[in-house]
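Handout, section 3.2

Students often ask what a structure token actually looks like in practice. Rather than define it abstractly, here is a full record for Acyl-CoA dehydrogenase family protein. The first block is the sequence as you would receive it.
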Amino acid sequence: MNFDFSDDQKLLKDQAAKFLADKCKPEDVRKILESDAPYDKTLWQGLAEMGFLGTTIPEAYGGLGLGYLELCVIAEELGRACAPVPLSSSVYLASEAINRFGSEEQKQAWLPKVASGEAIGCFAFAEGVQAPTARTITTTLSGGKLSGTKLPVADGDVADFAVVVVKTGSGTSEGDLSLALVDLTGAGVSRETVSTIDPTRSHATITFDGAPADLLGKEGDGWSATQDVMNCAAVLFAFEQLGGTQAALEMAKGYALDRYAFGRQIGSYQAIKHKLADMYVKLELARGHCYYGAWALSTNSPELPLAAAGARVAATEAFRFAAQENIQTHGGIGYTWEANTQFYYRRSKLLGLALGAVGGWKERIVRQLEQRNAA
């Protein structure tokens, strides 16, 4: 079985890398970090013009109509560049949910706008708890009106629409949950920006007070639909983390070769060699899991839940470790505001919680393996 990407996919990856190297330099990331701007609007429009925002959106709705493998290679380059844009919220989550479960009218209304960069979407799941469950979801949809509070919502302060996990039944079971689609620019919606460790990816608290909303998909299918979207997003987030891990390793290696101490490159010292070697091992372990996840996602394999969880765990741990060791390799300068090492440390922490803490994904692996062994 060949898990490598095709020549066309590698060419797309190279194009994305060149575009981001030109349009998303470290100084561009720092500009967003040090300003009140929630994201890089120029980069966002550039990604739209390149067609990257519509990679997996069908051509009938203004997208490129490509597959998940193409989106995986783009995601890796976005992670390498630490791109300050709301692409993951709009593309991996919100538009993916609409594309999978939306009506023709809902697809026509929002997918072309996402592909063109005209609209930003977000996925509102959590309600202030680390691991949302059917029992903890209190946001309700009744009579076409949405009420409740979601936090933290990635890119919720800049999004034009949201896919919201809501309660439509009277109980607390998974069958009482559904998905709702709401225009965030309409009545009954208030938002407040939430501070996080990575200001280049904004978050918000969204409060709904009788906001007009439509059901997305079938009533009662919200929990299973959310798991489908989460498994897809887990693989794509893992590729972003993979790119960030690679960039952190390259940054640490470059500094180790350039920095001299006591007349020698610091990279010649055993302690630094061990750091770089450990970073590389975790990177390659994560790469294997990511490729397995990409295969499962692109083929709609029954193994996707297990592969997605494996990719999520391995990539999260690899990125966290590489970002920390990158700072350590730089020594004292790595802790200063002027050092760019912080970009990857901040992003590693943020992505590590973006779809729920890694502990929850480890539990998923255990459950999947138990079910496999019991079969």
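Discussion prompt for tutorial groups: The chain has three domains: 7-116, 121-220, 224-374. How would you have guessed this from the sequence alone?
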